[in-house]
Write a structure and sequence with these properties.
CATH architecture of chain B: 3-Layer(aba) Sandwich
Number of helices of chain B: 8
CATH class of the largest domain in chain A: Alpha Beta
Helix content of chain B: 40-55%
CATH topology of chain B: Pyruvate-ferredoxin Oxidoreductase, domain 3
Number of strands of chain B: 6
Number of domains of chain B: 1
Mean pLDDT of chain B: 94
Radius of gyration of chain A: 27 Å
Largest interface: A-B, 53 and 60 residues
Largest sheet of chain B: 6 strands, mixed
Low-confidence stretches of chain B: none
Mean pLDDT of chain A: 94
CATH class of chain B: Alpha Beta
Number of domains of chain A: 4
Distance between the termini of chain B: 27 Å
Strand content of chain B: 15-25%
Oligomer: heterodimer
Radius of gyration of chain B: 16 Å
Shape of chain A: globular
Distance between the termini of chain A: 57 Å
Strand order of the largest sheet of chain A: 4-3-5-6-8-7-16
Strand order of the largest sheet of chain B: 2-3-1-4-5-6
Helix content of chain A: 25-40%
Largest sheet of chain A: 7 strands, mixed
Strand content of chain A: 15-25%
Shape of chain B: globular
Structural class of chain B: alpha/beta
CATH superfamily of chain B: Pyruvate-ferredoxin oxidoreductase, PFOR, domain III
């Protein structure tokens, strides 16, 4: 499970570094991949860490809470986080930015400048991908953004231990090459738990000094005298391109790329988690295949060519785009080698997550004698109902969504949605939001619907953390350009979806220390538009506010503010009086409004009447207001 | 030696705590452990599946391959059915009978299978297991959420690998103080449910 010895350990640039743990003995700890990644950075003397929550990466950042010497923050968004850590890097401090793939999309603009300037103190960007979209609105491969597009070196770990080793190596190489290094862990690495070696924490006593170099850190369309009058962007672009040769030499010697000899002329190429599935397939079949483990970008050309001599066909297992596959084809084409390269462009499924089954099926496609190892599914005579997620029992978003649905349905309005727990309002039975794209899209899309000439009301619903992340520019735009739009901020005081992280509206920071809470209400008021703050647990108050907002000719903001029930419960707070809620069977006429319209999972239906499941009901009492027959008390 | 345990349930059932106890008990005995969970929006009523892989050799895939689970612990009936392909030939399942209805089933869009349909489907594919009323037992102890501990107790009674005393020692260490006694009682209740059925 370990990835071998990282190259160039503890080099000269780190003279004077002190190992700060009292107990320098290596200890094995049972930790999540995310914690192993953070540990790799503190063992490298990281000083500044910033990120924005996003599954599967969130726990990387919260792992730093255990290390008081590291400056760590939840930034307003990922772009802010990366820009901030580059500032620290320019002061010769080691830094890290943490995000999931959607965040990497948003930082691309900064990345496309930072790749030209390079870094000073070691800088590692964690870009966590979610193949299969298990906890994401989309599925993508950020190696395309960070390597194919930005030409930065990328490590793709095959295990939590290797992820930690890669972070340590990345810091050393980031300083020797002056480039930002990218670690691209997939969800299965982030969320795996295993025994990982904990080595001593390192403190690097480097002064935070700023050394001016405007030819480098001022990216601008200016002629460069020293380069014969060429434009600076071209000069820096050339610098980045020349760096590729240095990287190619480094990856050739990297322990993260290995050749395993085996039998037969079919070779398996395992990239990141793909390597783990290849090894699993070997165990299942009892056959040792020739295996080429490729966990770096760029690829080690000489190693690839050496491996190719032992095989006729290569199958490349990578998440998720055919990045390595295409690079291998390029290497073989240039070298005039006749090796067949199969992978995710046409041979393996081009979408979704890999598994050991993908590897077995691929091998069996080439050699049917392996079909015996593919487990047959059990044919079940019953159909297994799908489980879509919904709001938690007791969640204030359910009553907000319910109130909004009553108003939107009555006025035949359209509701645009955003990213967060409240997005489950787009699923049955709520069926409310008509669009969900990426962070912050709700308000501009709503404006576009208005400006198209659509003559019914338009509502944009966005969460508090998302509002700070990227909702504000859309709101300012809607106000400035006079879109008649109702903006609803579902404010539960936390970034609940990803595990209750703080945000700029919170009164505390990531370490739980006091922080200056930024008021959403005051931001909206500063735009000179009507702002109403309501308690979403009061359905009629919320409906009244929405109706009031509709009367306004321009943008009107409704802030629905109530704490996240789950978070409050976790803190031992009681939001609701403990009491038994009962549906009177004599009063219930089986209209199913509480189920098909409101949709609390604690309400069941026996075919004729509704009843409350006492095991799950938390007595939020919202259903009492929802039932128009007064059957619930 | 290799042990693959899969726990299938719904968000909020204590799936992750249960799987971490199994992992820690194996680590105490010096084994390698690789575990993961699929927690797609788990807190909001989604499916949660924990994979716990234990071996005296290197482990690679965090996911238990199909047909390789020694024991499939179903905190919820249809979640167990959803993962049945993971069970290996000769593997054992333990099913809690208490259903957590899906939104679609409550709305009448999907049909939640009856218990006799579920038993029929399991019998047809010739898998062996134990069916226990773990939620009811937990409720009797004082909290239906103790179901996860009842199921772990049942696992200790069924599995030759996990030892009740070892799990109890870790539960005593890892539980919140106020919960220790109830958790230990729930483990015992799980053992009893299996013995009574035998």
């Amino acid at each position: 499970m370990t990835g071998g010895q990282p190259v160039m350990r503890r080099e000269a640039a780190m003279q004077g570094a002190v190992e700060a743990t009292a107990d320098p003995v290596v200890k094995q700890r049972f930790v999540m991949g995310n914690e192993a990644i953070a540990r790799g950075a503190v063992e490298s003397g990281v000083r500044v860490v910033a990120g924005y929550p996003g599954t599967p990466a969130s726990e990387i950042l919260t792992s730093y809470i255990a290390y008081p010497d590291v400056y760590v923050e939840w930034s307003t968004n990922e772009t802010v986080a990366l820009e901030l850590v580059q500032g620290a890097s320019l002061c010769n401090q080691r830094s890290m930015a943490v995000m999931k793939h959607n965040g990497t999309n948003t930082v691309t603009d900064f990345l496309m400048h930072m790749n030209f300037t390079g870094v000073r103190g070691g800088l590692v960007l964690i870009s966590a991908d979610d193949p299969g979209g298990n906890s994401s609105q989309n599925e993508e491969d950020t190696r395309v953004l960070t390597h194919t597009y930005a030409h930065l070196p990328v490590f793709d770990p095959s295990s939590p231990s290797e992820a930690k080793d890669m972070v340590r190596t990345a810091y050393e190489l980031s300083e020797s090459t002056e480039l930002c290094f990218v670690l691209r862990p997939v969800m299965r690495i982030c969320h795996s738990r295993t025994l990982v070696d904990f080595e001593p924490v390192l403190v690097i006593p480097r002064p935070a000094d700023f050394v001016n170099d405007r030819t480098r850190y001022v990216m601008s369309a200016v002629v460069e005298k020293s380069a014969g009058g060429q434009m600076r962007p071209v000069v820096r672009h050339r610098w980045l391109n020349q760096k590729q040769h240095e990287l190619e030499e480094l990856v050739e010697a990297s322990p993260f790329n290995t050749i395993e000899a085996g039998e037969g002329r079919i070779g398996l190429v395992g990239c990141g988690i793909g390597y783990a599935y290849c090894k699993e397939a070997e165990e299942i079949t009892g056959h040792k295949f020739p295996v080429l483990k490729l966990c770096t970008l760029p690829l080690p050309r000489e190693k690839v060519l050496a491996f190719a001599d032992s095989v006729d066909t290569l199958i490349v297992f990578e998440e998720t785009e055919p990045v390595v596959e295409r690079l291998l084809k390029e290497i073989f084409y240039d070298a005039g080698k006749n090796v067949k390269v199969l992978g995710r462009s046409g041979f393996l499924p081009a979408e979704g997550e890999l598994s050991d089954r993908t590897v077995l099926q691929a091998i069996a496609t080439l050699d049917p004698s392996y079909e015996q190892y593919i487990p047959q599914p059990f044919p079940l005579s019953v159909s297994v109902p799908m489980r879509t997620r919904t709001q938690c029992v007791g969640c204030s978003h359910r009553s907000l969504l319910h109130a909004l649905k009553l108003v939107a349905r009555k006025t035949k309005g359209v509701v645009t949605g955003d990213i967060g727990c409240y997005d489950a309002g787009a699923f049955p039975p709520m069926d409310l939001q008509s669009t969900i794209y990426c962070m912050g899209a709700s308000i501009p899309m709503g404006s576009g619907i208005v400006q198209s000439g659509f003559d019914k009301p338009v509502f944009a619903i966005i969460g508090d953390s998302t509002f700070f992340h990227s909702g504000v520019p859309g709101l300012i735009n809607a106000v400035h350009n006079e879109s008649k739009l109702v903006v609803i901020v579902a404010d539960n005081g936390t970034t609940a979806m990803t595990g209750f992280q703080s945000h700029p509206g919170s009164a505390e920071n990531v370490r739980g220390a006091g922080a200056r809470s930024i008021s959403i209400e005051k931001i909206a008021e500063a735009l000179n538009v009507p702002v109403q703050t309501v308690n979403p647990y009061d359905i009629s108050e919320t409906i009244d506010a929405l109706n009031q907002a509709l009367k306004h000719p321009g943008v009107s903001v409704v802030i629905a503010s109530a704490p996240c029930y789950l978070l409050a419960k976790g803190h031992g707070e009681t939001l609701f009086e403990a009491r038994k809620i009962i549906i009177d069977p004599d009063q219930c006429n089986g209209c199913r409004v509480c189920i098909d319209y409101f949709g609390c999972p604690s309400i069941q239906f026996d075919g004729a009447k509704a009843s409350i499941d006492p095991l799950t009901c938390v007595s939020c009492m919202l259903c009492i207001d929802v039932c128009k027959r007064g059957a619930i008390a | 030696m290799k042990q693959n345990i899969l726990i299938a349930g719904v968000g909020g059932q204590g799936n992750l705590f249960a799987s971490s106890l199994l992992a820690k008990s194996a680590i105490c005995r010096g084994y390698q452990v690789l575990a993961t969970e699929t927690i797609g929006a788990a807190q909001r009523g989604g499916s949660v599946v924990s994979h716990v892989r234990i071996a005296d050799q290197a482990l690679y895939s965090p996911l238990i391959p199909d047909g390789q689970a020694d024991c499939l612990v179903g905190f919820e009936p249809v979640e167990l059915l959803r993962q049945i392909r993971k069970l290996k030939a000769g593997g054992i399942y333990i099913m809690n009978t208490h259903p957590v209805l899906t939104v679609g089933c409550t709305m009448g869009l999907d049909q939640y299978p009856t218990m006799s349909e579920i038993f029929g489907a399991l019998n047809e594919i010739n898998v062996r297991g134990h069916v226990i009323q773990a939620t009811d037992a937990a409720d009797k102890i004082g909290d239906p959420l103790l179901m996860n501990m009842v199921m772990l107790g049942a696992l200790c009674a069924v599995s030759a690998f996990f030892k009740l005393d070892e799990i109890k020692a870790i539960v005593a260490e890892e539980s919140r103080r106020a919960m220790v006694e109830a958790n230990l009682d729930a483990l015992d209740a799980g053992v009893d449910l299996i013995r009574q059925a035998a």
